[in-house]
Prior knowledge:
This protein has one domain (2-203): Rossmann fold (3-Layer(aba) Sandwich). 58% of the residues lie in helices and 13% in strands. It has helices spanning 13-26, 41-51, 59-83, 94-104, 109-120, 135-145, 157-172, 186-203, and strands at 2-6, 31-35, 87-91, 127-132, 177-181.
Amino acid sequence: MFxxxxxxxxxxxxxxxxxxxxxxxxxGRSVITTREPGGSPLGDAIRALFLAPGPAIxxxxxxxxxxxxxxxHIATLIRPALQRGEIVLCDRFxxxxxxxxxxxxxxxxxxxxxxxxxxVGTLVADMTIVLDCDPSLSRRRLAERGxxxxxxxxxxxxxxxxxRGGFLAIARESERHVVLDAGDPRDALVAAALAAIEGxxxxx
Length: 204
Ligand code: TMP
């Protein structure tokens, strides 16, 4: 089972990922949690470059960086884990490229899909949970965290509205996506995500 969690920054992806992983492990399941960009030494190095505050990175370069990290992540961590029968819970995947570099930055979606296809080969997420989050809630949560802002967190609200709309548009056209309200309580989100994952497993 390859399950992905998507949403803008501050939508609660990592909290949900941790809650779902804990619940699945409590049921005796073997779970790997990972994230993009990241998931390998090369991916972590690319993540650091990608997020470092500094001069703007060209959108095509952004798309290539995340896909380079993705190809390595899949080859060295995701595919081997799936072959061992483990559940992989991944914080972001291809939809983030479509939402950020496509809907957010304005790159052509068909071109991005081809680039992502090169990185992922035949791998598709069995299911994707989209944490739908109002950018103002996201801003509030990021400010509460008091963490240094990275390069993308400095983008304006319009950018995040486009990215949010992108996630929703992708979800509308897919039967593998479940949209949850990021403002719901953590326990309710974990329960809904678990039910969705188990529903997909039962149908497999
Ligand atoms: P986060 O996962 O910690 O929220 O941060 C990762 C950042 O990278 C976030 O701003 C979204 C961005 N990103 C892209 O722009 N495109 C991608 O394909 C991925 C995976 C992430």
